[in-house]
Amino acid sequence: MADEDDVKKQEQETKEDSKAESGDQKNPGGRLLWIITAVVVIVGAGAGFGLGRLLGSSGTTGPGQSDEGRQVQSENLIADNPDAANAKSTGTWFYDQFEPVVANLDEPSVTRYVRVTLVIEVDDQVDKKKGTAFIEKNKHLLTNCLTIYLAGLSLEDIRGDRNLKRIQSEIVDAFNEKLFPDAKPHIKRILFKEFAIQ
Q1: Each residue of 5-33: pLDDT tens digit?
Q2: Is residue 140 within 8 Å of residue 117, measured between CB atoms?
Q3: 73: how many CB neighbours lie within 10 A of its CB?
Q4: 111-114 contacts at long range (C-beta below 8 A, 24 or more positions apart)
Q5: How do residues 137-162 score in pLDDT, each as one tens digit?
Q6: Closest C-alpha among 92, 117, 99 to residue 188
Q7: Alpha carbons 158 and 173: distance in angstroms, whole number
Q8: How far apart are the C-alpha atoms of 7 and 79, rounded to whole Å?
Q9: What is the reported pLDDT for 28?
Q10: What does the pLDDT look like over 53-107, one tens digit per residue?
C-alpha cells in the first residue's frame, strides 16, 4: 500500500509539476504581451506629446504670426508725427501691388470663375513705408481670405453695382479684421482694378 500511495503521490506531483510548467509557459507569454502593450502605449504617448509640442508652438492664425503679433505690429504702423503726416498727406494712400486672385464661383451646374485685382486704400495715419511692408508681409493671408470669400459667392451674388459695392464693403471688413484685430481699422476702401467673370 505504501507503494500505491507513493505512486499516487508521484502521479499527483507529476500532474502538479506539469500544470505549473504549463502555467509558467502561459505566464511568460502573458507577461510578454503586457510588456509589448506597455512599450507601445509609452512610445505612442511620448510621440503624441512630442508632436503636440512641435505643432503647438506653431499654432498661429497667420503665416508666422498671431493676432496679438499683428496687433502690436499694426500699432507700430502709425506715422511718427501724425500732425506732420496730415499736413503733407492728401488723406489716404494706395497699395496697388496686389496680384490678381482667381476663384471658382459657387455654381453647381457650370464652371464659372471670377478674376479680381484690387487696390487697397489705406488711412493716412499709417506710414506709407511701414504700411506697405506690413501689407506685403501679410499678402498671402489677404489673398487666402479673398479667395475663400469669392469662392462662396454665386453668379447672382456678384451681378450689378449694388452687389459689387456690398462685396467691396465686405472685403474691407474682412481685411481690417485680419490685419488689425482689436484695433482701429486702417483700410478705408477697396477699389477694383479688374473684376472679370468667365
Answers
A1: 666 767 777 666 655 555 555 566 778 88
A2: no
A3: 17
A4: 112/155, 112/197, 112/198, 113/197, 113/198, 114/150, 114/153, 114/158, 114/195, 114/196, 114/197, 114/198
A5: 999 999 999 999 999 999 999 999 99
A6: 92
A7: 17
A8: 106
A9: 64
A10: 766 644 444 444 455 554 445 556 776 555 544 445 557 899 998 899 999 998 8
* Type of residue numbered 132: T
Question: In the structure grid, which three cell numbers stand for residue 87, read together?
Answer: 499736413
- pTM (global) more than 0.85: no
- Helix (H) / strand (E) element for 194: namely strand 187-197
The owner of cell 505549473 is 20
Contact 105, 112 (CB under 8 A): yes
Which residue is associated with the grid cell 502593450? 37
CA contacts within 13 A on the Cβ side of 101:
24
